[in-house]
Amino acid sequence: MTKAFILISLAFTILERLIPWRKEQRLLRKGFLSDLIFITFNGYLFSKLFYFSAAATVLVYFSNAMKSMGVWDTLNSAVMREYPVWVQFLALFLVQDFLKWGVHNVLHRVPFLWEFHKVHHSVEIMDWMGNIRYHWMEVLVYNSLLFVPLSFLGFDPHLFFWTGIIEIIVGHCNHSNLNIDLKWLRYFINSPRMHIWHHAADDPAAVNKNFGIVLSVWDWIFKTAYMPAGRAPERLGFDGMQAYPFGFLNQYLFPVSLFWKNRKPIRPTVPAHSV
Fold it and tell me: Is residue 11 part of a domain?
């Protein structure tokens, strides 16, 4: 996966120079060095040390709990194992993409999770690197909510690699500065012209819209699609961006420091008879 990620990223770096949407946008734009650190940390170090091991740990505890309740065999049906690989791939791709659409929706609507997801929405100048700017907490949420149920269905483990490759390619594309117009395909597949409105900060109608990861069809079905024709947002971000910290370390620590600052102090109970 690491080699594939590097090759895909290099390809988009070149493509953005060849067919840019916003021709005045520079490669070494504001936040470039921070995003390089995000890529190093999220794409390599932390993913190998924590993401998958954390999801596996959640699965172990969950399976043990279900076994103690006597329902593990019912849940762990592995029904997909009986089907051809191409059927498994199609089912995994559709189910996984829909579930990720739902989790992405939750990240925006639950205040606790939104504080972590703000890291991704702190992008002010959009290119493919914005796809990798995110806080580790939201990846833990995705892995915990998706890895556990999908692991019960018996999909060929190798298929997760290929759906992951598709997500990297489309995710890079959605955040890229590429001049791509999908025309009628916009109703099925996400694109830079649609996803940029998900990051818009200057249009109230764009708030909580375009949650699609690979497919845009879920947004059109559930009426969360927003894609004004012939224009793009002038400002990216979210309300309160002026007070939001800049830089990798500050953004990684800020949500934690925020909750620590707003925590309610625990005061010891003093017995009524004490003097």
Answer: no
